[in-house]
Amino acid sequence: MNRENASFLLGGIFFGFLVGFSIAHFVYQQPSAERTAAPMQAPVNPSDPMGRGATPPQPQEPPAAAGGAPSMETMQKVQQELAALRQAVQDNPKDARSLGRLGDIYYDAGMFDKAKEYYSRSLEVDPSNPNISTDLGICFQRLGQPDEAIRQFRSSLAVSPQHWQSWLNLGIVSLFDKQDVKTAEEAFAKVKELNPSFEGLPQMLEALDKVKAGGKP
Predict the structure, then answer these.
(1) Whole-model pTM over 0.85
(2) What angle do helix axes 164-176 and 146-159 make, rounded to 10 degrees?
(3) Which of 90, 98, 209, 211 is the most exposed place for a label (fewest CB within 10 A)?
(4) Sign for the pseudo-dihedral over CA of 112, 116, 122, 128
(5) 18: enclosing H helix or E strand
(6) 216 phi and psi, to 5 degrees?
(7) Smallest Cα–Cα separation from 141: which of 97, 109, 103, 178?
């Protein structure tokens, strides 16, 4: 999908950004449209700044994400879209767009294992989509697999070296999950080069400086 902006999953006051291409409220309001990203607040756990300690919901179908229980009309729209997407994938298992869209819905619901399945299938069909690849990397991180996440972000960059979101996520996971200062520093430098106006960059650099000084991010 050609989405220009990114959504921010805030896992802390000054850090914990993961930049993806899915947002919760637009999933239900614009089921057939290309989505424009906007900020979304994730649960904050002081001992777990990336939010891994939160247990994702495990219903039969994706619930609404942050913002309260969905209305009956909203749930009907979700059910209708899910049914249409599943039928599309059944009719054409190589429908990369529908597979990616299913991944988006589960991603927004916090059901990262299910989202990972659909993003992976979408990338098997269209491995050149850095947006889907980036979201898949975030799923790996959320599932406690930072090494897989890093490999996925590097795969995104092999396809699209100018994809600043992949650089940012590479830096975040390298710093917060792996304490790999060198990689994080290189990645954030690329973000500064490619998107110097990114509003979260100062916080990322501040966290990096703390680690370099021997502290914690």
Answers:
(1) no
(2) 160
(3) 90
(4) positive
(5) strand 18-20
(6) -110, 150
(7) 178
The tens place of each residue's pLDDT in the chain, 217 residues long, gives: 323 333 333 233 223 345 555 433 233 332 222 222 222 223 333 333 333 333 333 344 454 444 556 678 877 887 888 888 889 888 898 989 999 999 998 898 889 999 999 999 999 999 999 999 999 999 999 999 999 999 999 999 999 999 999 999 999 999 999 999 999 999 999 999 999 999 999 999 999 999 888 876 6
What's phi and psi for 7, nearest 5 deg? -95, 150
Residue 69: other Cβ atoms inside 10 A: 8
Rounded Cα–Cα distance for residues 207 and 175 (Å): 9
* Rounded-to-integer distance, Cα 198 and Cα 193, Å: 10
Long-range CB pairs of 179-188 (<8 Å, 24+ gap) are 179/211, 181/208, 181/211, 181/212, 184/208, 184/211, 185/212
